[in-house]
Design a protein that fits this description.
The radius of gyration is 20 Å and the shape is globular. It has a 3-stranded antiparallel beta sheet. The protein folds into 2 domains: about 80 residues, Winged helix-like DNA-binding domain superfamily/Winged helix DNA-binding domain (Arc Repressor Mutant, subunit A); about 140 residues, Up-down Bundle (Four Helix Bundle (Hemerythrin (Met), subunit A)), CATH 1.20.120.530. α1 crosses α3, α2 crosses α3 and α5 runs antiparallel to α6. It is about 65% helix and about 5% strand. By secondary structure, the protein is mainly alpha-helical.
Amino acid sequence: MPSDERPRAPLLPARRALADDVYDALLALLMDQVLEPGSRASIDGLARDLGVSPTPVREALARLESEGLVVKQALKGYRVAPLLDEEGLRQLFEMRRLLEPFAARLAAGRLAREQLGELEELCAAMRASGEGLHEGDERFRDYRDFAAQDSAFHTAIAARSGNALLSDAISRLRPHLHQYRVYFKPYAVDGTSREHEAILDALRRGDPEAAEAAMLAHIVCSYGRISRSLAAEPEPEPEPEPGR
């Protein structure tokens, strides 16, 4: 077939896949603090490091900018956004308290058996990741698996709320929260897993009030864990059981 007659449509999914891969790679660098808050994110430099052209890097940075993880400065390019300060963290969790309990309430009764099964699998995976973290397992030591499973659990519930705008708003908050993995403490594993299971139990029973209460309790406890880590407090205070 002559070169000018070759079909070009199949190239588009490949380009999208590359852009997604570069986005995932840059997100991992941000979450692992390889790209430190406030540091410059050079398009050409990142393209060389990742072995790709500047185009997918530019697309990935634009996507990260829309999520607030990098900042574009006129005539200076991109810089990694600074970590939220204590006030920013408070505002982030205020938004979570407003949005996520309501999403859980809406999702209760909407979840099919297959969707509940997905949440059950995520809870089981988080328990396994938590055990690895406690045991110093190299696969989980950097908290990446646990954080990804945590994000997937919350995103899945929001997606089943039946409100696309609400789901999108919740999804946009998640990257900011994951920046705080640098402050991760081992005691967060057990608390988060236990609280997720309480949410799942309420969703499984199709109980909107219990799902909303369990999600609210989880977010309150999560904020307390991160706040204590920021304050470098050595031991957590007793936490209330979710949903009570």
